[in-house]
Amino acid sequence: MGQKKKKSMILLLSVLLILAAVYFILQSWNKSQEKKQQAKEEAKQVYLTDIGEVKGIQYDTGSGDMEFKKEGDVWYYAPDMDFPLAQSYPKKMAEEFGHLKAERELKDGDSLEAYGLTDPVYTVVLKDAEGKETTLYYGSSTGDSYYVTVGDTKKVYTVSNTTISDLQYSLDDMAQLDTFPTIGSGNLKKEIITKDGKTTTYDSEKEEDSKNIAAVAGGLGAVTLQKVADYSVEDKDLAQYGLDEASRTTVEAAYTLDKKEKTLTLYIGNTDADKNRYVMMNDSRIVYLISDEVCKNILNEE
């Protein structure tokens, strides 16, 4: 390569390096400006609450009180600590209400009554780690917002109507139900049924049991855990569902999942007025309702 070509290549490379450096500097500057702008916007933002850690949430949406409390890292439904509460619901409420963002503050406004705040639509009480309570009152709605005041401050703000969306869930909606495994004739290895002290076994390794395995696998594959009769049954109440040890039918199903052998234990009890059977699984305290037809298939009954 000639000297002229070498000089041209070096010059071109130098130009490219300079352009790359300029591009990097511009990118960094733009990001810096964006951060400054975000910081300015954040500084202007008004928050109605600033609670380090929310440890308690209580609210009334007109259909009764709901109360949750946090112990350690776990949220509980306060009236029934054994209720299987899905953690995502109270966590989201704590995040939303612990740092509740205002859209605007009303200056020189009317009386609280004019905004529906003397008879609030919603009342939310938050408790922090020291036990201090903060009360939010939601008044009338206006467009996509609600009028809100905090405690007895008499300052009125508007907040987005989406902030109360988490309060619309029923307790049933917030239940963390069990996950029933996927079982079919392809992965069911054995089913053992114990009733009234008698045991029946269906084994996939036995050719004479192939039809029985297919039948019971069909029943297990049709189970859906959707209807609940009791979310946290106590031992003393098991008999009313026919799920006490003396009355229930026990099904132990051995199956494979990801090449590992697993065991499902299912307890089947009485039939209700709608021809559903009361059912529990493994060590769960939730009593489910499953159709009698599906249970008959699981038990290989006519």
What would you note in describing this structure?
There is one protein chain. The chain is α+β, with helices and mostly antiparallel strands and 302 residues long. The protein has 2 domains: 54-168, no CATH class; 188-298, Immunoglobulin-like, CATH 2.60.40. The protein contains 4 helices and 15 strands. The chain has helices spanning 3-44, 88-98, 210-221, 292-298, and strands at residues 54-60, 65-71, 74-77, 104-105, 122-128, 133-142, 145-150, 157-160, 188-195, 198-203, 227-230, 249-257, 260-271, 276-281, 287-291. The strands form 2 sheets. It has an 8-stranded antiparallel beta sheet with strand order 3-2-1-5-6-7-8-4, covered by helices on one side. The chain has a 7-stranded antiparallel beta sheet with strand order 10-9-12-13-14-15-11. Mean pLDDT is 90; it is low at 39-43.
Q: Report the structural category.
A: alpha+beta
What is the spatial order of strands in the main beta sheet?
Answer: 3-2-1-5-6-7-8-4
Order of helices and strands: HEEEHEEEEEEEHEEEEEH
For the largest beta-sheet, the strand count, sense and barrel status come to: 8 strands, antiparallel
In terms of DSSP E residues, the strand content is: 25-35%
Integer tally of domains: 2
Write the SSE topology.
Layout (H helix, E strand, L loop, with lengths): L2 H42 L9 E7 L4 E7 L2 E4 L10 H11 L5 E2 L16 E7 L4 E10 L2 E6 L6 E4 L27 E8 L2 E6 L6 H12 L5 E4 L18 E9 L2 E12 L4 E6 L5 E5 H7 L4
Helix pairs in contact: 3-4
